[in-house]
Design a protein that fits this description.
Double Stranded RNA Binding Domain; YefM-like fold; elongated; three-stranded antiparallel β-sheet; single chain
Length: 136
């Protein structure tokens, strides 16, 4: 079982952070005996979510250019070149993830959106565009 720590004890977060992040040993923070939150290293979450792979379809357009379509989120980007389409897709993904997290209280009640949650969480952990691009 994951170690549990009361919220009062967690106020001194430094040792818990070291345990959860540096040693990658999750820590459960409990408030009032029933509310629980899990402090987990970013690398641990990325490893857990690594099975949620992305699939980008490259669709050449008849009039020229390309559409890149990310199946898991149903978002895409169009550009005159593959590079332009990739840049547009990254922009669309960033916007989608931001909106998903902003509207999470609403989306978590919609089954089709709940299915996207692990993908959104994985993408939200990208440090920069290079890492985001590598995930896709």
């Amino acid at each position: 079982m994951v170690e549990e720590v009361s919220l009062t004890s967690a106020r001194n977060l430094s040792p818990l952070f070291d345990r959860a992040v540096r040693r990658e040993h999750p820590v459960m923070i409990v408030r009032g005996g029933k509310d629980r939150g899990l402090l987990v290293a970013r690398d641990t979450i990325l490893r857990v979510l690594s099975g949620y792979q992305f699939h980008v379809d490259v669709l050449p357009e008849g009039e020229g250019g390309f559409t890149l379509w990310l199946k898991e989120l149903n978002v895409g980007g169009f550009g005159a070149t593959l590079r332009d389409a990739r840049r547009e897709l990254l922009s669309a993904v960033r916007s989608y993830v931001r909106n998903y997290l902003d509207e999470f209280d609403f989306y978590r009640h919609l089954p089709e959106m709940v299915e996207q949650e692990p993908f959104v969480l994985r993408l939200s952990l990208a440090k920069d565009d290079a890492e985001l691009s590598a995930m896709l």
